[in-house]
Specification:
Layout lengths: L11 E6 L5 E6 L2 E2 L6 E2 L3 E6 L3 E4 L12 E5 L3 E5 L30
Antiparallel strand pairs: 1-2, 2-5, 3-4, 5-6, 7-8
């Protein structure tokens, strides 16, 4: 696992003040390349400030995302919305298809 994200586009970034009053910038998803040779990512990296230290979050990647948005909510959470998922059957594996992905599993809003 690398500690620094590879070059990409279509990722999202959101920042949160940490408990120690430093700042953490969360960097999620994105894609490298284009067309059939594009690679979409399901990775989270955190850039800690003021130390400028990258940390890759260790979790089981399941849903790569690109051209989505990240928004800080409640001061301690990040909401990720929209974008594409090349693993979605509705998308046919086409990273640039941008068809609707799937129904919202949370019928009553946020979990």
């Amino acid at each position: 696992m690398e500690d620094t994200p590879k070059g990409r586009h279509g990722h999202c970034i959101a920042g949160i003040v940490s408990q120690s009053q430093t700042f953490e910038i969360f960097f999620y998803g994105g894609e490298a390349g284009s067309g059939a040779s594009a690679t979409a990512y399901d990775e989270i990296f955190i850039l800690t400030l003021p130390s400028f230290h990258w940390i890759q979050v260790d979790y089981k990647a399941q849903n790569p995302r690109f051209t989505h948005t990240c928004n800080t909510i409640g001061g301690s959470q990040i909401l990720i919305s929209g974008g594409g998922d090349p693993t979605s059957p509705e998308n046919g594996g086409d990273v640039n298809g941008m068809e609707p992905i799937r129904a919202d599993p949370f019928q009553q809003g946020l979990a």
